[in-house]
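re: ur question from yesterday

yeah so i grabbed the chain u mentioned. its 226 aa long if i counted rite. heres the sequnce exactly as i have it in my notes:
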Amino acid sequence: MTSIYQRVLGEDFAKLHPRIQKRFGFSSEDQIAAIGKGVMNKVWYGRWYTLPFLYVGTWRNILFPQRGEGIPFTIENYAYRDSLGRETVTWVRTYLFPKQIRRFDATMIYSEKRGTIIDYLGTHQHLAVEIDMSVAENGGMRLRSGQQYFYEGPLGFRFPMLFSGYADVCEWYDEEQEKYRIDVKVANKLFGPLFGYSGSFDVEYISVTERDIPHYVKPKREERRE
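ran it thru and got these structure tokens back, copy pasting raw so excuse formatting
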């Protein structure tokens, strides 16, 4: 089985750096997980009026009003089939700030309906985001967020971008440092930069079965709608 990211990129997947291909190239059938550990050189947020966006995000482990430098972090990627049978990859990031631990949870699937990656943000998959993926000039993976949809109970609607932000993410492998690097920027068209971080990390690949996947990396609620 090909990974959900190979399905999106097709032949372009081979243009990624070999280390990035390995990182984005496994599925649930491979029974491996990628565990990254490193340091965020900088975690930042925008001006004071961006704080309401970030505080709301803390309710479901999406965004947070925290900044700092030299912040240790982990990123956990497990591939599994969810209760709806969809191939899923976890993206659970944990930031160890001096006085507080923050998390940014997400799970990604390939949407047959939309023909793209859907990134469910937070612990309850309330926010579904279309992701555009491409190969960066440095051989890294480039992700840009698109339309967003909010789902809760019977409610379902396109989320107004006035109250959210567009993410621009690049993850690549630095040959000189022999480390993975990541740069993330989230911005709102009206309010400007909201949040972001940049850092480097190492990745360990471990063998896992379905039973080995930690419960805390999976969402507390799974959303059928994409």
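noticed a couple things. The CA atoms of residues 45 and 173 lie 25 Å apart. also The chain has one domain: 4-217.
anyway ttyl
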